[in-house]
Design goal:
- The chain is mostly beta strands and about 70 residues long.
- It has a single domain, classed as Nuclear Transport Factor 2, Chain: A (Roll), CATH 3.10.450.50.
- The protein is about 0% helix and about 65% strand.
- It is elongated and about 50 Å long.
- The relative contact order is 0.23.
């Protein structure tokens, strides 16, 4: 499909030095095997924590934002 993925960071709320709540918009555009365009978009909300090496790790990735929930 060779998708083109774009992520736009909207807002970050950081708690202390090691936890962050991130809100973003994403889009994906591609062509399926029949040549038809495929387009997807959503808002995502994620929780990240800082690792000992100071990089960030996503610990909760809600790819579909508020459209889907996990119970």
């Amino acid at each position: 499909m060779r998708p083109k993925f774009e992520l736009k960071l909207n807002k970050v709320f950081q708690a202390g030095d090691d936890i962050a709540l991130i809100f973003s918009d994403w889009t994906l555009a591609a062509t399926d095997s029949d040549g038809n365009p495929v387009e997807m978009a959503a808002q995502t909300s994620d929780v990240a924590r800082r690792r000992p090496d100071r990089s960030w790790l996503l610990v909760i990735d809600n790819l579909w934002g508020s459209e889907h929930s996990v119970v």
